[in-house]
Design a protein that fits this description.
five-stranded antiparallel sheet; alpha+beta
Length: about 625
């Protein structure tokens, strides 16, 4: 297994022109292809006419998308080109819009009326006191009344002139009833509109008492809903009549197709698709095309001159979730190492050490297993949970209780110095691995001699400083590493060697200070392990002091939930920080070009054409 990222392969696919749309669907669903056009015989005629029609579809979608059914495609009797699919779909949508326009406008008026009636019904039902509704709604001829649903702002601080108001505060809404001169009511409405308030129409024929008015409003709301159901049923009839679900699916597919596909090399009967693929031999793409009946020939060839290949991270299946850490910075270039294999070992160890508890780890393991398909990054919880369980046995902790099992190693709070020192030693090993990867990258980039003349001195000094903790005489070796680093930079410099030596000395001090700080940063792993143990002890102490067993159980349950939620988040952040800012900066620049596969249409499976009805 190589530590270097792999280059994607250049592929070329020859298909029948009629199969082009279906072939694009297959390539997108495979997530193994990045398109890049190449060739002289372009086919721009596939796109301009479609774009003009798509502008019309976009406008129809803007006006009516909330009234359309979910897109559903049907199996075709024959395959057509995207332009024919879109023309047929848009024809059906035009005819639907012509007949549905009045129904949609009527439904929208009914919806607005029903929303107002629901709000009024809620106010009539829940308000403690209301004025005489008949007199309020029929105020005049000199006065004007108004009912306002307030937005997220506060109650108005003041009202214009002689306007009389009554506030109606409900748990979820606030209403303001106002009576005043027309000019003053207009000024009040403008003031409330700035606070995102909305004026409601209070029917003038409501009974004066709230209870009686509520019964009347309930009947009117029921009638409004019945009319809305009739309008929706009329729309459903039109949907079925013009097969709108299929038309929308066709139009969405063509829009995806036009936005995703670059210019293609094509003739009257054939199309040539080219680009990059993560398929190593082309057999997977060939098989996928054959399964849906697309007659095509996939060929892997050398990339055309001047084309930069995207890079792929090649790791065992179980390590792939850890590629997330590398991808936070980008993709390693061809001369850089992919650190995923190291990260896949280091991050679960750090996480489990900081979060060592059998019960907490089991919860994380279960959560990761249940959510791994819906939220793929949460697969990392599986590995973190396993290591938390193992360290939980080592520390003798189960759901914060240290009396259920004996520790296989120690309780963290019994030997805090050791708990702090071990992660720092592990961090030093991780930093040395990063420096070794830097040396390996120098070899790949044909800079191995330069690294031995310069960077090797920094590694020697760091190793000697670590060893001097046990053997102080190694400090002389550290001094030798410093001289090696400075002298090496001076020797490789073609001119002004004294200036180069001075710059190298400053660089050495900065790099060594950074290494020392990075090493000490790993103490936080032990600190969080102690914090986890301390918080667990506090939760258990509160439960013991609670008295009754039932109350103690609740405290223990809530305390463990708090530890899992709070510390799980904090420990995840700290693990990520140590990887990105202590380990990766030793060697990783992430200057490679990422592989961006053609994205499939998300809203519905790429549709197929249905004959015009």
């Amino acid at each position: 297994m190589s530590l270097r990222p792999a280059s994607a392969n250049w592929f070329e696919l020859l298909v029948m022109r009629d199969d082009l749309a279906e072939a694009m669907k297959v390539l997108a669903s495979s997530r193994r292809v990045e398109l890049q056009s190449h060739g002289e015989a372009k086919a721009p005629m596939l796109m301009p006419e479609c774009r003009e029609l798509l502008e019309e579809f976009d406008e129809l979608e803007r006006l009516y998308r909330h009234h359309w059914p979910a897109p559903v495609h049907h199996e075709p009797d024959e395959r057509d080109e995207p332009y024919d699919m879109l023309q047929d779909a848009l024809g059906r949508l035009r005819r639907w819009a012509t007949e549905a326009r009045d129904i949609v406008e009527h439904l929208e008026r009914l919806t607005e009326r029903g929303n107002d009636q629901e709000l009024l019904l809620r106010m009539l039902r829940d308000a403690e006191t209301l004025p005489d509704l008949a007199q309020f709604s029929q105020a005049g001829p000199m006065l004007e009344s108004g009912l306002f649903l307030l937005g997220s702002g506060d109650w108005p601080d003041s009202t214009p002139g002689t306007v009389i108001t009554q506030r109606v505060a409900l748990p979820a809404q606030r209403f303001l009833m106002a009576v005043g001169l027309p000019d003053e009511m207009s000024a009040l409405e403008q003031q409330l509109h700035a606070q995102r308030a909305r004026r409601l129409i209070l029917p003038p024929d409501l009974p004066p008492q709230a209870a009686e008015a509520e019964a009347v409003m309930r009947e009117r709301l029921s009638e409004t809903r019945r009319q809305m159901d009739d309008a929706r049923e009329a729309l459903r009839t039109l949907h079925e009549r013009f097969d709108i679900a299929d038309a929308i699916a066709d139009a969405l597919f063509v829009r995806w197709y036009v936005n995703s596909v670059p210019e293609l090399s094509a003739t009257e009967h054939f199309a040539w698709i080219s680009g990059w693929t993560s398929d190593t031999d082309g057999e997977e793409l060939q098989t996928l095309l054959a399964e849906v009946g697309v007659k095509g020939l996939v060929q892997l060839t050398a990339a055309p001159p001047g084309f930069e290949a995207p890079l792929l991270l090649k790791n065992p299946r179980w390590m792939r979730p850890f590629e997330l850490f590398t991808e936070m910075l980008g993709v390693p270039s061809a001369g850089e190492a992919d650190p995923t294999r190291v990260v896949a070992i280091a991050t679960p160890l750090m996480f489990g050490y900081m979060f060592g508890d059998v019960g907490h780890g089991a919860v994380l393991l279960l959560a990761g297993f249940m959510l791994r398909r819906r939220y793929p990054p949460l697969r990392l919880l599986i590995y973190g949970g396993v290591m938390s369980i193992l360290f939980g046995f080592a520390f003798g902790s189960v759901f914060a209780l240290e009396t259920l099992i004996q520790p296989l190693w120690i309780h963290p709070l019994e030997q805090p110095v050791l708990i702090l020192f071990l992660p720092m030693a592990g961090g030093a090993v991780l930093l040395l691995v990063g420096m070794c990867l830097d040396a390996l990258q120098a070899y790949w980039q044909r800079k191995g001699r330069y690294w031995w003349e310069t960077g090797a001195g920094l590694v020697l000094c760091y190793l000697a400083l670590l060893g001097s903790i046990m053997e102080p005489r190694l400090l002389w070796l550290a001094l030798g590493g410093a001289v090696w680093f400075v002298a090496g930079h001076a020797l490789v410099s073609s001119e002004r060697r004294f200036a180069a030596a001075g710059s190298a000395a400053v660089e050495f001090l900065e790099s060594m200070l950074q290494l020392i700080v990075n090493t000490i940063s790993f103490v936080r792993v032990g600190a969080f392990a102690l914090a986890h143990a301390g918080l667990s002890m506090a939760v258990v102490g509160l439960a013991d002091a609670a008295g009754p067993l039932f109350v103690a159980g609740i405290i223990l349950l809530l305390g463990n939930a708090l530890i899992i939620a709070l510390e799980g988040l904090v420990v995840s952040i700290q693990t990520t920080r140590l990887v990105l800012f202590e380990f990766f900066i030793r060697f990783l620049h992430a200057e490679g070009r990422p592989f961006r596969p053609l994205a499939p249409l998300i809203t519905t499976p790429p549709p197929k054409h249905r004959r015009q009805q």
